[in-house]
Design brief:
Layout (H helix, E strand, L loop, with lengths): L1 H4 L2 H9 L1 H18 L6 E5 L5 H7 L10 E6 L2 H9 L5 E4 L13 E7 L15 H15 E11 L4 H14 L2 E7 L7 E7 L10 H4 L6 E4 L16 H13 L20
Parallel strand pairs: 1-2, 1-4, 2-3, 4-5
Antiparallel strand pairs: 5-7, 6-7, 6-8
Helix pairs in contact: 3-4, 6-7
Amino acid sequence: PPDLYYNDVESRKYTTSSRILSIQAEMTHRALSLLSLTSPSLILDVGCGSGLSGSILSSIPPGEGGPHMWVGMDISASMLDIALQRDVEGDLLLCDIGQGVPFRAATFDAAISISAVQWLCNAESSDTSPQGRLARFFSGLYASLKRGGRAVCQFYPKNEQQKSMVSAAAIKAGFGAGLLEDGAGTKNAKVYLVLTVGGGDLKGGGIEGVVEGMGGVDVVRREKDEKKRGQERKGSKAWILEKKAKMERKGKVVKPSSKYSGRRRRVQF
């Protein structure tokens, strides 16, 4: 897990590597271009680390819509300690994004995340699941953004399954979602998940307006549930099994099902 991997030594290496600084700056500017902010905004930096992306947000000139104010959250205390030593301008919060985004609703104008979301695809214990951690993160992120807000999450999926799992969790939380891959098919490929919150003045009425004119963008659409409400009677075996399955997808611990699940009990006198 990142809180153990990024100890004092690794955090210092990460922050002082000229190669990482260059890549981080490139990806942050790319994320900002996808956000298309035209005025100074309050931005949530998810997985802010030592504040490399935040420093760029603070340095955007007025002619390009900046400078931006930002709040950073990260699970690594060592990374945040280096951010404090660097005297970054943003506020910092020690937090596990897999447990949610602990901010009041509609706090932020936008959000960015650079190389952090892929950590949620790993189950760190038998009591958690990647689907549950992703669901809590995207639900909290959706709530924390203002109507018409946008988020850009750059991440490194191991395979197509992880890419689909991340985008599906974002859509389920309510986002409009589009996947953009720079350098597709190369060793240095970078995936960007572009998210929009309903409302606002987005041209095209949603994610299609955000990514209009961009090449190689895959807009992920929400599949409507064909199942009619009320089809399963409350308390029936099928209803109980479906409810347990939903709880498992949220990462909660559920007792295993058996032939007795949902069986009606005789009245005892």
